Structures
1.
Amino acid sequence: MVLRIGYVREHFCSPLLQFEAEDKGSMFTLVECPSGTGQLISRLTNDEIDIAIALTDPLIAGIAKGSEAYKLVGSYVTSPLRWAVITGNKPSTYNQISDLQGSTIGISRNGSGSQTMAYVMALQQRWATSELKFQVNNDIRGLIDSVNDGTTSAFMWEWFTTKPFADAGECRFIGQVPTPWPSWLIAAHPTRAEPAAVRTFLNNLSRHVRAFASAEARAGPSVKFVMETFGYPETDVKEWLDAVEYPEDCATIPWNVIVDTLGVLQQAGAVASPEGDVKRDRFLNLDVVKLV
């Protein structure tokens, strides 16, 4: 089967784009989801994609809240994600994270990483998570427009993706919140995506991830690819590459990633505490993934 792979077109997906150029549609096609993980989960639910490369926290939160549209099959990025806290470009009362308490936070979609990380931010600031107010603004353009027209105070998005907008004076960074978990996992529909096809895809993706993340590639070819594909300045690309980590094998997930992420999400009030032990087969497709 030709798999439909949902993804967000960001610098993190560079190895996937290199794989696509080699594959030429024989194994998979890409389906861009610019609104992020909330949109990826929605498209898995609506039979619009078979696999999603998406943020760890909303994927795990979705299953914890009862979604049966997908199970986890692998890892994509093992380093934390650096979330910028972003407000409007004009002087305002929002100049640091503590100024946001009680205000309305912009998010892309309900269940997105921009929402779950707002809960984490509230936890770090010792705010009551029940006080959080959200406004859905769909995508990066809607989020930037919202902080500039005053309907929201701030939003959270990956640092380097939004840095060009800040450099252009469209918005301001007032802080950052790194994820307390590895940033990207891979999920697949439990019945539509055949295990053999998913394993083949993950094995080949692993090959491209290892090549992109090698010391030799980080010293030149990977920097050039990201600059040419996404238009980022060389200094930003090198700073990101110095910090990002990919797995050796994309078909693996450490079980503690699931348990630890759930623990933080429960503490932040983003998901309810489970009754009894967390069942592995609820979160993982054990016909595909290898626990490490």
2.
Amino acid sequence: MAEAEESGVPGEEKQPQLSSPSGGPEDKPAAARAEDTQERPAEGGAAPSPRTAVTVETSLLHFKLRRFFVLRPGTLDQAIKDVEALVDKEVDGGVRGVWLMVEVDHWNNEKERLVLITDNSLLVFKYDFVMFNCEQFQRIPLNFVDRIAHGAFSFPKRSLLQREGEGVRVYWDRLREPSFTSKWNPFATDFPYITFTSHPVRTISDSFAALCDIHIFREQLKDAAQKLHATKPVPGKANGVLVLNQNLQIEAYMGLMSFLGNQNKLGYSMARGNIGF
């Protein structure tokens, strides 16, 4: 009891009950008893360290990402086989790269996409990772691609929408502008450009980070398009690809449909409670 009072630590008199078989606390040096006293509060109900908080946050993020069906074992491999089977060797040539991307349409709606860069084409697939079925795809000849813009997203001054991150926009007809009707039609598909951004699962592993790397995608697309421009130029069309670093504007203002859709990830194949869409 006297030793406990000298140490100045309340409750130290209970320590003999926790002594090791080799001897009681009276056999320990004073410095060792002080270390025990200082370390013990950390073993109790102390606040978690910043490292623990980061670990919990990362685990929660990974738990949410696991809802994406593309992460189910074997799903992505099967999807890639299915879309590669749709490549026309005579028209598209060989496959140069496969990418998991998100298409952002003119109303700011996100849509999960598998994208293939081939010798002659940019192929964009809408793939159902639940039913293992390709629902539709778009073919863009690379020698028609004339501009590749990349940068942060922007909206009109009076828009209520916002979007973080960067994107890549691919243009293939600089002489044609979207009509007024198309701009206000959320289902219009006649735009002479397409916009991509990174998929949410890019942070799940190194392999998915490579598959969703939008910067490497941009460079590979530029190289493939420039090569085809040189070998198969389009008559009456300027050859070469212009690469622009600029904001990608989305001319959407209210965007209630895109807000609800993007918040609930309706453009993705993922588990939603007991039902998958």
3.
Amino acid sequence: MLASGNHSSYPVSFILLGIPGLENSQFWIAFPLCAMYVVAIIGNTTVLHIIRIDHTLHEPMYLFLAMLAITDLVLSSSTQPKMLAILWFHAHETQYHACLIQVFFIHAFSSVESGVLMAMALDRYVAICFPLRHSSVLTPAVVGKLGAAVMMRALLLVSPFCIMVSRMPFCPNQIIPQPYCEHMAVLKLVCADTRVNRAYGLFVAFSVVGFDMIVISVSYVMILRTVLGLPSGQAQLKAFGTCASHICVILALYIPALFTFLTHRFGHHVPRAVHIMFANLYLLVPPMLNPIIYGVRTKQIRNRVIQGFCGKDP
């Protein structure tokens, strides 16, 4: 059933199939996905709580980490509850406007996550290459402005996705063959020329990820030059150690994201179940791994967690 709007007709709701090809296994697949989601919620909430109560952690690195934790909470929570409802309770129907809201949150906060990782790379660059100027360059005000700029970029670039799609006519087919709404999946249901929408999607993807990856790469090239110029091997290892967590988080985000992006557009021979599982992991693995990586490799956070469990100083 289609509802009439000012500029288009749109369906009242969509049907999210879940994981086509794995219908008989969906119930059991939901259990590890749920476990990963719980770990993501507990881990990121713990990181936020530790940074909030410990005033010694109100430094640029930890403020960016708090931004990353908030982004991970929003990103995972925008997909997982509905996904689990589909896999466990067969709640396949989703309202049209709820679907567009999910499109916005997925793409906007994926952009924010990439932007925060870029800002963290800049922080590591200043901290290692200009250690004496770090506190004066990256003040809390500057950190706040960087966070606001990353968020504003996401709002300005992603909002047109929803606006453009909402003004287009939809076909009678209302089935989305995956467990959540995202731009390309919704666009395939439009009964009109979508070349402009697709081109804009590619522009946003390449401009956001491309710009962030260039800044991250240049930052780490400069860091590598500085570290290799340090006089002692111990100093070099310490400098590399401060970047190891960030590098792991970058790989956890960009590798599945790149696979998902490429298979959506060019991987027509990739089995749909494999593509959908990787798309799910792209939205769930980074939020789950980020607090674990930083919790294990960051002494201050690790000690706070141990202190909370043991009830005394570690």
